Amino acid sequence: MDLLREAIGSALRLLAGGDAYTLEVLRLSLWVSLSATACALAVGLPLGMAIAIGRFPGRRLLLAVVNTGMGLPPVVVGLVVTVLLWRSGPLGALGLLYTPAAMTFAQAVIALPLVVALSAAALQQVDDEFRLQLRGLGASRLRSLWEVAREARLPLLAAAMAGFGAAISEVGAALMVGGNLRGQTRVLTTAAVLETSKGNFDLALAFGVVLLLLAFVVNLALTLAQLHSRPSSR
Amino acid sequence: MTALLELRDVVVRAGDRTILHVPALTLDAGETLTVLGPNGAGKSTLLRVAGLLLRPDAGQVLLDGQPAREDTLRHATAAVLQRPLLRRGTVASNAGIGLRFRGVGRREAHQQAAPWLDRLGIAHLRDRPARLLSTGEGQRVSLARALATTPRLLLLDEPFAALDEPTRGRLVLDLRELLAKHQVAALLVTHDRREAAALAHRTAVLDQGRLLAVGATEDILADPALSPLVGGASLLDAELARLERRRPASSSAQPCPNDHGEGERDAQRRGRG
Questions:
Q1: Domain that holds residue A116
Q2: Å from A131 to nearest chain B CA?
Q3: Of A26, A167, B21, B239, which has the highest C-beta tally within 10 A?
């Protein structure tokens, strides 16, 4: 218990004191995970939209694959991405292995199924006839899709947050494709693993607390957004 | 005179089955045409084809005698469906959304839609969240939203079906007045002969996807051969008549002191229109 209390105090001291190492790790974590979430959203929202309102052969199979992907082990993703980016691999020429870009790629792959499945579920909640009504009022196809997404914006926000949560909290893939190089690819999770292995439990726990604080801030933002738009939205 | 809208040899199929076949159907400017028929007759499919919300498998939809392009027709028409299907936001933002789809700015759309909220008797609701409205109020917003786009043709897919009887009656009469005053043509799909009687210049009868008859509403409603399809005296009407015959003459119901309220509000609303 003392260790935990000490860790929380240590984490707050590190953040408040502007510890360069901690801030560097925090900054890279945020950058990699936010980029990964943005990539997952860019691919996942249209896919979720297609699954939710499209009618095409293989739609159910795609949904089953996506649902299965929600339980994708990060280590497997890390392994596959490593093989892809390995010097002699199909994408080896890009020279991305052990860079933040590789970590972004791996985290985006992990977040993608969550974003697709949750956004599809969110968009399916919007009445089928709503889009027909919008078209009947003169909306173009694209505008009607935008309006459907607008109707489902709160659950879509939750899908984005879930994707971000999956990205920032995973450790296996980041370790494998990033290499945990200080100043280059070290993020909160890999730093916590390293400090634990060195026996620096207070610092490892401090990184853990920073992660928890991040999760709290993200969820607080989501809750406030929900409270803000429930009573009446424009 | 060239018809405003014409359906020519329209066929819609679902798999091997033909669910709609309309050899010819026209609608003139300012005219209200009702499509009557039982459930599953293909009425809503016909309405969707008329607005090109559904592409027919064969045939043509003509606007002003020319094959209609989807974007042209969409801007000439506005649809009102059975349920209001309002978006998030206030009544005012909902009322202006059709105009926004036509490229009108937010503020201007609100301004242009405001008189229609007034004409439909819901101006006092303009700042209320649309999701908090009753079905009747929501359907008035839905009508205001469609009429605010000043369509040449209003596509109405059983817009009164989800309303209770007094609300339905008031809204039908209000709509009749607005259509006549603003010379908007309307294609109304319904299975209620009273709505046809109140609104339509002409009536078409559809059954199992086939167009059986088109003619003056009074002729169609009086045709005994079409009676089973256009909601002539139903089994429930017979039950009601039986109950009324059993009622002793002395037990006639006293009018409720508040009954006059609806009529007064109705008169006020029409006065504003």
A1: 27-186
A2: 9
A3: A167
CATH of the domain at A108: 1.10.3720.10
Q: Which of B87, B129, B155 sits opposite A136 (nearest CB)?
A: B155
**pLDDT digit string, tens, across residues A73-132:** 999 999 999 999 999 999 999 999 999 999 999 999 999 999 999 999 999 999 989 999
A173: which 2 tokens? 């893939």
| Closest chain A residue by Cα to residue B106 | A234
Strands B202-207 and B210-216: antiparallel
Q: How far is A231 from chain B (nearest CA, A)?
A: 8
Residue A212 in any domain: the answer is no
Asked if A137 lies within 8 A of B93 by C-beta distance, the reply is no
Of B26, B21, B27, give the one whose Cα is nearest residue B9.
Answer: B21
Q: A126 vs chain B: nearest CA distance in angstroms?
A: 10
Q: Does A231 touch chain B (CB under 8 A)?
A: yes
The pLDDT profile of chain B, 273 residues, written as one tens digit per residue, is 789 999 999 999 999 999 999 999 999 999 999 999 988 899 999 999 999 999 999 999 999 999 999 989 989 999 999 999 999 999 999 999 999 999 999 999 999 999 999 999 999 999 999 989 999 999 999 999 999 999 999 999 999 988 888 888 888 998 999 999 999 999 999 988 899 999 999 999 999 999 999 999 999 988 888 887 877 655 666 677 777 777 766 555 555 444 444 444 444 444 443
By a Cβ cutoff of 8 Å, what residues of chain B touch chain A? 48, 51, 53, 71, 74-75, 77-81, 83, 85, 87-90, 93, 97-98, 101-102, 129, 145-146, 149, 155
**Residue spans of alpha helices (H) in A54-152:** 59-69, 74-85, 100-124, 128-136, 141-151
How buried is residue A205: exposed, middle or buried, by Cβ count under 10 Å (0-12/13-18/19+)? Answer: buried
Residue at A167 is within a domain: yes
- The answer to whether A147 contacts chain B (CB < 8 Å) is yes
CA distances from B158 to A60, B36, B62, B227 (A): 33, 10, 23, 19
Q: Which residues pair with A22 in a beta bridge?
A: none
For the full predicted model, state whether its pTM sits above 0.90. no
CB–CB contact A140 B81 (8 Å): no
Q: How many domains does chain A have?
A: 1
Note whether B77 contacts A136, CB cutoff 8 Å: yes
* All structural domains of chain B: 5-272 (3.40.50.300)
ipTM here: 0.82
Residues in chain B: 273
